């Protein structure tokens, strides 16, 4: 197949083969391109979609972009099971193999330094949510809370509701702070991302903690068990707090070389 070269990641040589049925962007299976002791993971993509002008147009098409992102992430996930990949930005495209090799040569020192730092490590994401119903006060019983008889009574009711929401938020923040401190003690590095908007993430509730943890692969089972115990505690309690664990991912959040690498997972 001819076409442009789509580059997913750079990694060190590894001996375990990728999944036989793994398809990359545009359906082309990824292949390994060794160069100067590093490996670029690439596939062919059609120039009609990925040349500069059509690509610029496609980036405005959310459905098209979502399909590319899923295929890109599928390759990164497959790589993460067999090696430590450094994901490149979505839609990193070169004219030919020579362009890919030139890129490796230009960033070789950065690639090697980052791979040394992240070798054998994965990223785990942990989010804490306060569901909307936990922020709102329970519906009052009619006999205990009759309709406001005056403007003053109405303002008092609103003030009580505001205090209830604030108390719920403070409890959730305190819980998230304690959880982050515990998980950070079992990770080599951490990143605190901005809370996600429900409108963008599609998750229900208010995002209190959005954190990433760099964990040695060998210690991941213990890390997951700690999060699972915390999830059991919150689910069996009355706090309404929800803990979400994702991963293991390539260490997106801990790649500090600007310009080349993919956006961190948030």
Write the layout of secondary structure elements.
Elements lengths: L3 E8 L19 E5 L2 E8 L1 H4 L1 H7 L3 H19 L5 E2 L5 E2 L2 H22 L2 E10 L1 H4 L15 H34 L4 E4 L5 H4 L4 E11 L3 H17 L5 E8 L17
Antiparallel strand pairs: 1-3, 1-4, 1-5, 2-3, 6-8, 6-9, 7-8
In short:
The chain is of the alpha+beta class.
Instruction: State the distance separating the first and last CA atoms.
Output: 35 Å
Q: State the low-pLDDT regions, or none.
A: 135-143
Number of E-state strands? 9
**Rounded mean pLDDT score:** 85
Query: Which class best fits the helix and strand makeup?
Result: alpha+beta
Major β-sheet annotation: 5 strands, antiparallel
Question: What is the 3D form?
Answer: globular
Structural Rg: 24 Å
Number of helices: 8
Helix content: 40-55%
What is the percentage of strand-forming residues? 15-25%
Q: In sequence order, what are the helices and strands, one letter per element?
A: EEEHHHEEHEHHEHEHE
Oligomer: single chain
Explain this structure to me?
With 266 residues, this protein is an alpha+beta fold. 42% of the residues lie in helices and 22% in strands. The protein contains eight helices and nine strands. The protein has helices at 47-50, 52-58, 62-80, 97-118, 132-135, 151-184, 198-201, 220-236, and strands at 4-11, 31-35, 38-45, 86-87, 93-94, 121-130, 189-192, 206-216, 242-249. Strands 1, 2, 3, 4 and 5 form a five-stranded antiparallel β-sheet that branches. A four-stranded antiparallel β-sheet has the order 7-8-6-9. Strand 2 (31-35) and strand 3 (38-45) form a beta hairpin. The longest helix is centred in the middle third of the chain and has 34 residues, at 151-184.
């Amino acid at each position: 197949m001819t076409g442009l070269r789509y580059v997913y990641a750079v990694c060190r040589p590894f001996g375990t083969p990728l999944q036989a049925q793994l398809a990359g962007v545009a359906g082309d299976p990824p292949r390994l391109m060794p160069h100067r002791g590093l490996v670029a993971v690439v596939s062919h993509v059609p120039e009609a979609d990925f040349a500069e002008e059509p690509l610029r147009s496609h980036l405005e098409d959310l459905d098209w972009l979502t399909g590319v992102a899923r295929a890109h992430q599928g390759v990164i996930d497959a790589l993460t099971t067999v090696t430590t990949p450094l994901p490149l930005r979505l839609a990193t495209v070169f004219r030919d193999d020579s362009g890919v090799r030139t890129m490796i040569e230009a960033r070789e020192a950065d690639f090697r330094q980052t791979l040394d730092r992240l070798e054998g490590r994965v990223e785990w994401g942990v989010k804490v949510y306060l569901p909307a119903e936990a922020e709102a006060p329970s519906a009052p019983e009619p006999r205990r809370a009759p309709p406001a008889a005056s403007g003053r009574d109405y303002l008092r009711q609103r003030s009580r509701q505001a205090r209830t929401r604030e108390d719920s938020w403070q409890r959730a923040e305190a819980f998230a702070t304690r959880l982050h401190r515990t998980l950070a003690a079992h990770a080599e590095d951490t990143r605190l991302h901005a809370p996600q908007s429900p409108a963008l993430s599609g998750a229900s509730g208010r995002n209190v903690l959005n954190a990433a943890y760099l964990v040695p692969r060998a210690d991941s089972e213990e890390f997951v068990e700690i999060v699972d115990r915390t999830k059991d505690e919150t689910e069996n309690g009355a706090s309404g707090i929800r803990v979400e664990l994702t991963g293991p991912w390539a260490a997106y959040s801990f790649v500090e070389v600007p310009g080349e690498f993919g956006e961190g997972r948030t």
